[in-house]
Known about the structure:
This protein is of the alpha/beta class. It is 31% helix and 20% strand. It folds into two domains: 4-62, DNA polymerase, domain 1, CATH 1.10.150.530; 70-325, Aldolase class I (TIM Barrel, Alpha-Beta Barrel).
Amino acid sequence: MSKEKLLGKSPEELKSIVLSLGLPAFTASQLASWMYRKRVRSFEQMSDISKKGRELLAENYEIGLSDPLEVFTSRDGTRKYLFEVQGGAIEAVMIPDEERKTLCVSSQVGCKMGCKFCMTGRQGFHGNLSVADILNQYLSIEESQELTNTVFMGMGEPLDNYEAVSGAIRVLISDWGFGWSPKRITLSTIGLIPGLKRYLDESRCHLAVSLHNPFPEERFNFMPIEKAYDIRDVLDLIRRYDFSGQRRVSFEYTMFADWNDDLRHAAALARLLKGLECRVNLIRFHKIPDFPYDCAPAEKMIAFRDYLSEKGITCTIRASKGEDIFAACGLLAGKHNS
């Protein structure tokens, strides 16, 4: 029988645990410091906790850390880490960019959303990650102490596992945890409105919305979620919040040849986003098996970007990283190297 994991728990939650073991209440703050600040991997390393206390903790609990099964390094410096979790395997991707090192983390094993152009969505859903599973992606990689930013854009839909994702964010931004600014964190969603409202109400972190097509009927053909949550309703909710200050909203738009890459789509997207302080990131589609579409030609992506820019919408063509190790957008599948 597996032991309960302490990783992800707050000092108050840890206090209840240590008191139940007959340990002093201050042991909770010691535990939090060792796990989140000093990032130790065993109770034995927690030298300011009594020997008896360390033994009791080890008998009844585990920290919750596990090493990656495999690490893949791209020629551009991107690194993909494969972790084993209950339900299968998940991947986290470290993306270097000049002074920044961003970790793209997973929140689920597979995904329920079924987007047709996504390798993760094609494998189906095999379980939610725990808070410990999510935090382990930060703590068990080589660049753990060097990370500058994080994006919840890996395997899974973050808002479909909101409790665990919000629990991980709590550790990332708390003074007793990693102590990060919310400005270092971006969550990506395809638009689950109930979870999105909670995220916008409860968090000051950035938001990225996977939009991909401004026409609801076309979007539904590739993204079944459109039937439940119309992208126009998603935008109506977002407009109720302030994105003129430090919190930002961006829209991810993967470009497919002859599906969403002409100026008709650019014009519709400009109308959809009119008046909203935002950024549009155009993403090159990475070919996957048994999917009929290719990436839009570079000249069409440039024309699309220029049209939106002329309409006053900040728009960039995002550089693709890690494609050679299947770490780029839409390619994560939690597979062992064969």
